[in-house]
């Protein structure tokens, strides 16, 4: 809670935008709009590019994405989270121009993506983008091998090369031995592994995943999340990941954008969202989150030059849950060190206990 | 439970104006009826008012054939070109399967290259059935083809099969292409849908007339008629199947960077192939049905045999050929379904496979055909099935017919006369005497109440079109025959459907009966009917009823099975007895589906109606048939369109009612 004011600043979307230069963003959009309905461009222009929610509804349009600004940085997992119908699928499809935005700017690797013609777009999609779908979208007539090699086949890669490459990714997702199976013969989790392998076959720069695990059973979903984290540790892709599940978002994300009714309400790291929800709406999501898994040691460090006697030392960017056991069982505070090994303060037992059992619940327990 | 109460009681406010309106309509009808006694034009549409539409159509066709030109070539050259193009593969099939090829050697002598061995063909299809289906299918198909050989139907059957082998692929490709166009362009779809609607309701004979006029008499024109007739479902199924491909799969295709062509061939068509195969099966069945009917314009083969024996009233020969058609239809139907199902569920292969392994089916067929072909040079019995081994059932059937005539005639005739005097003739009189403007008013009223003023205007103007083109009375005869047959078909089909919905065992039996009835080409129904009841309205009614009963069974069964389980449980918990459950809960909820069954039954009845012209009815079907024998395109097309309009009136009214009811019951 020490950095409270600073974190609040950083979590306001407009400030996040300005503080990060879009030059180092892989993919970014500015003032992006998508309205469904006839002649939406004209309507948008009539309203000076900024219709209110009432104007949109009144004119009979659906405001699927409204004035969205975001930057996805190289190598990060950027999660877009929101309830069903909040516009997540639409925004991610705007980013790949599967859906044509009604207005706004779209930059991919610093180039204006909206200026690309159909041919350039096809080239970009063939070589630089991959997408995983909620319901897998596998081709039923092709085997696992055929499905994974499909994007390469479309590019005209010869059979031997594309099958060799496909086998590599099939092994990467742990499906070796199943390459002659057809989608129908696989479980949901296995089918999505095929979907993942297929989208990775072309070694995309940007990887879109639209609710990839939502159609799976909870246990399998968990397993696939672990698998996803393992892959990302190996691959370091730039990822836009869609989910309606806040826990999933927190597990996987470097940064999260929360959407509501077509608007991005807040963008920030899981920790920023939990410590400084921008609105009541975000606070609702974060309330039941296990804070010890989200908050870092840094966020509850008591800053001091002289830290006195300590029981040991912890790193500032460790999660509290990871160090809690040691801190709670020691009779003295711990020293907190930053990345460079410099001591920045101490970690008190009470601060950790506060996170493990927040005030509210302790009050209830006391009554 | 809200659905249940909704069925039982409607607010009285809604009810009263409806009752009043109907009372008013009825009063108008009766008034017109009585006025008809004074004013002749009310009772009978006056001849001098008839629009000479048929003459105009005939003249237009005349112009098309004699004078129309596309600049580079004339219309006539165009039709000739198409005929020539289709004749090449047809002749090739005929040479292979039926006739062989005569190659002239010098002046006098010539050498005959024989067709494929009958045993080879039999073995080939059996092998195919075994590979794509099961041992059971192989036995079925093998037995069917063996029947053709043993009972002396082989040559005719091969001629029919040749037409099918050419017509089906052409129909599939053309239908598929049109379907793809419709999928790509909404404008094209909107343009083609009403045409398809009309094509599927115009009776089959009506196709034959213009084709006969444009392409002449012969196997190729018969095949063209077959293709045109069998294509519409393929067009429809293709559009439906492609639209059914999930949005995600399409998006995947775009993300993978597919070009338009890659998208179509590598993503869309393969993903939709299961639904597409349903269309293919439809094309096969319709082609088979049509190629028989097309014997009237020279298709030859089995249809020709049936037709000539019907004309000679040689029931025995007709039955033999009829069974042969049935047998051929059943084997082709089951074969194509097996192929469709196999294609739908691919199974992974355990090991790496070589060329021979991957193409066992084709290599096997080629081997069998070639082997028997060569062997046949040494063993003539393999070339064509030996005549002395042919079993001729003709006399047997003749005896059967004779026996029926001697022993059953009195009873059959008594039933027939009683029904004719007490039911058929009075009903016919009623419809013919009804004043045509009155009927139009009733239809308009029904349309308006069910589906709004557009529907009312549509059905009324269709009815008036029938009157204006001078076909009113004939149309009423059609309506009477069709109406009585549909009532009968429902009276038979409804109880069977209810039984089938109640028990699994009965369900399977009913399913099989319905399947078989629908596989039989319509021609076949005429044979036993004529055998038992001679020609006339009564025979027509029996044939139509038998042909149209299948959808009545199917839809009733399906509708009752579709009633949500929770509703049934709720009804049981509130203490319904079995009978109450059926009549108070299940039937009302299944009613929209059952009505769609009635609708289908009417469509089937109308398509059969025209064919019963062969057994001497006096209705629109007869008009079309006469037009065919005189190659009078105007008469044929106009009468055909009138039948189609009857069908469309029934279809729109019932369809709108069922859709509204479904919405009200929340079953969508
Ligand atoms: N093609 C479309 N036409 C009209 N409305 C659409 C279309 N696609 C999505 N919408 C609407 O846009 C809104 C956002 O949809 P979507 O992006 O699919 O939400 P999410 O993926 O978050 O569930 C919803 O109200 C949806 O009904
Ligand atoms: Mg979505």
UniProtKB/TrEMBL annotation, chain B:
Q: How does it sit in the membrane?
A: Multi-pass membrane protein
The reply on keyword Transmembrane helix is yes
According to the entry, every stretch annotated as the ABC transmembrane type-1 domain falls at 153-336, 475-654
Q: Name one GO molecular function term.
A: amine transmembrane transporter activity
Key word Transmembrane helix present in the record?
yes
Q: What is its main location?
A: membrane
* One Pfam family hit: BPD_transp_1
- Any transmembrane segments, and where? 19-36, 111-130, 137-154, 160-183, 204-230, 283-303, 362-382, 454-472, 479-503, 523-550, 594-615, 635-654
* Any GO CC annotation of this UniProt entry: ATP-binding cassette (ABC) transporter complex
Task: Give the domain of life.
Answer: Bacteria
Q: Extract the PANTHER family matched here.
A: GLYCINE BETAINE/PROLINE BETAINE TRANSPORT SYSTEM PERMEASE PROTEIN PROW (PTHR47737), GLYCINE BETAINE_PROLINE BETAINE TRANSPORT SYSTEM PERMEASE PROTEIN PROW (PTHR47737:SF1)
Q: What is this protein called?
A: ABC transporter permease subunit
């Amino acid at each position: 809670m020490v950095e409270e004011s600073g974190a609040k600043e950083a979590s306001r979307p407009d400030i996040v935008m300005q503080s990060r230069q879009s030059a180092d963003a892989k993919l970014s959009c500015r003032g992006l709009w998508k309205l469904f309905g006839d002649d939406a461009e004209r309507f948008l222009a009539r309203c000076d590019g900024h219709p209110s929610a009432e104007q949109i509804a009144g004119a009979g349009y659906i405001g699927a994405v409204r004035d969205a600004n975001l930057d996805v940085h190289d190598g990060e997992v950027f999660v877009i989270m929101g309830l069903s119908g909040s516009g997540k699928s639409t925004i991610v499809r705007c980013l790949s121009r599967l859906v044509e935005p009604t207005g706004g700017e779209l930059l991919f690797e610093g180039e204006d993506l909206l200026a690309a013609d159909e041919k350039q777009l096809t080239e970009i999609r063939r070589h630089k983008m991959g997408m995983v779908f909620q319901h897998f979208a596998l081709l039923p007539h092709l085997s696992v091998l055929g499905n994974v090699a499909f994007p390469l086949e479309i590019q005209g890669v010869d059979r031997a090369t594309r099958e060799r490459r496909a086998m590599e990714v099939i092994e990467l997702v742990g499906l070796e031995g199943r390459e002659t199976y057809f989608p129908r013969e696989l479980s949901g989790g296995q089918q999505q592994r095929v979907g993942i392998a297929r989208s990775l076959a072309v070694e995309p720069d940007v990887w879109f995943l639209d609710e990839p695990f939502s159609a799976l059973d909870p246990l399998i979903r968990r397993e696939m999340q672990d698998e996803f984290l393992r892959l990302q540790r190996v691959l370091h892709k730039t990822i836009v990941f869609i989910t309606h599940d806040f826990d999933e978002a927190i597990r996987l994300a470097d940064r999260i954008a929360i959407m509501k009714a077509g608007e991005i309400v807040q963008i920030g790291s899981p920790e920023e969202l939990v410590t400084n929800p921008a609105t009541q709406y975000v606070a609702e999501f974060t309330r039941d989150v296990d804070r010890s898994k989200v908050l870092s040691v840094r966020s509850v460090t008591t800053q001091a030059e002289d830290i006195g006697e300590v029981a040991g030392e912890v790193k500032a960017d460790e999660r509290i849950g990871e160090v809690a056991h040691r801190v709670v069982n020691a009779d003295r505070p711990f020293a907190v060190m930053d990345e460079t090994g410099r001591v920045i303060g101490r970690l008190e037992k009470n601060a950790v206990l506060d996170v493990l059992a927040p005030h509210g619940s302790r009050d209830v327990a006391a009554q | 439970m809200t659905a249940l109460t909704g069925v039982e009681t409607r607010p009285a406010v809604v009810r009263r104006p409806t009752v009043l309106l109907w009372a008013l309509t009825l009063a108008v009808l009766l008034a017109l009826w009585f006025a008809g006694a004074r004013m002749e034009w009310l009772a009978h549409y006056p001849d001098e008012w008839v629009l000479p539409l048929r003459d105009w159509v005939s003249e237009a066709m005349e112009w098309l054939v004699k004078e129309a030109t596309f600049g580079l070539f004339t219309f006539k050259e165009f039709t000739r070109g198409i005929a020539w193009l289709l004749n090449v593969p047809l002749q090739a099939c005929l040479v292979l399967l039926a006739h062989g090829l005569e190659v002239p050697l010098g002046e006098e002598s010539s050498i005959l290259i024989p067709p494929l061995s009958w045993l080879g063909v039999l073995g080939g299809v059996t092998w195919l059935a075994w590979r794509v289906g099961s041992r059971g299918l192989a036995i079925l198909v093998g037995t069917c083809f063996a029947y053709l050989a043993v009972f002396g139907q082989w040559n005719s059957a091969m001629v029919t099969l040749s037409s099918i082998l050419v017509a089906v692929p052409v129909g599939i490709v053309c239908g598929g292409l049109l379907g793809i166009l419709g999928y790509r362009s909404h404008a094209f779809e909107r343009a083609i849908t009403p045409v398809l609607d009309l094509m599927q309701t115009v009776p089959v004979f009506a196709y034959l007339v213009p084709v006969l006029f444009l392409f002449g008499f012969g196997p190729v024109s018969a095949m063209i008629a077959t293709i045109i007739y069998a294509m519409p479902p393929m067009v429809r199924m293709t559009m439906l199947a492609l639209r059914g491909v999930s949005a995600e799969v399409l998006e995947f295709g775009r993300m993978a960077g597919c070009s338009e062509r890659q998208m179509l061939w590598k993503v869309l068509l393969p993903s939709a192939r299961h639904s597409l195969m349903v269309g293919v099966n439809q094309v096969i069945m319709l082609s088979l049905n049509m190629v028989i009917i097309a014997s009237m314009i020279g298709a030859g083969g089995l249809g020709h045999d049936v037709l000539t024996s019907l004309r000679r009233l040689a029931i025995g020969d007709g039955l033999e050929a009829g069974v042969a058609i049935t047998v051929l239809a059943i084997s082709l139907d089951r074969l194509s379904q097996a192929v469709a199902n196999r294609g739908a569920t691919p199974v992974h292969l355990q090991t790496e496979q070589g060329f021979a392994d991957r193409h066992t089916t084709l290599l096997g067929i080629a081997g069998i055909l070639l082997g028997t072909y060569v062997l046949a040079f040494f063993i003539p019995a393999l070339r064509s099935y030996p005549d002395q081994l042919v079993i001729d059932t003709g006399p047997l059937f003749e005896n059967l017919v004779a026996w029926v005539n001697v022993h059953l005639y009195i009873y059959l005739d008594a039933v027939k006369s009683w029904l004719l005097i007490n039911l058929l003739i009075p009903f016919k009189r009623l419809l013919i005497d009804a004043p045509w403007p009155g009927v139009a008013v009733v239809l308009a009223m029904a349309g308006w109440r069910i589906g709004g003023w557009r529907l009312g205007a549509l059905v009324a103007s269709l009815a008036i079109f029938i009157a204006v083109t001078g076909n009113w009375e004939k149309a009423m005869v059609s309506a009477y025959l069709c109406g009585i047959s549909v009532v009968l078909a429902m009276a038979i089909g409804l109880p069977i459907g209810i039984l089938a919905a109640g028990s699994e065992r009965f369900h399977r039996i009913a399913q099989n009966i319905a399947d078989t009835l629908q596989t039989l080409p319509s021609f076949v129904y005429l044979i036993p009917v004529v055998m038992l009841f001679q020609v006339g309205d009564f025979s027509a009614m029996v044939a139509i009823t038998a042909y149209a009963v299948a959808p009545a069974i199917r839809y009733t069964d399906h509708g009752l099975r579709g009633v949500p389980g929770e509703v049934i449980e709720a009804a049981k918990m509130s203490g319904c007895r079995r009978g109450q459950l059926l009549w108070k809960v299940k039937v009302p909820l299944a009613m929209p589906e059952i009505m769609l069954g009635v609708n289908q039954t009417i469509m089937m009845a109308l398509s059969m109606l025209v064919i019963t012209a062969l057994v001497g009815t006096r209705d629109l079907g007869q008009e079309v048939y006469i037009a065919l024998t005189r190659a009078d395109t105007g008469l044929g097309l106009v009468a055909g369109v009138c039948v189609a309009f009857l069908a469309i009136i029934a279809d729109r009214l019932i369809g709108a009612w069922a859709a509204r009811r479904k919405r009200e019951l929340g079953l969508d």
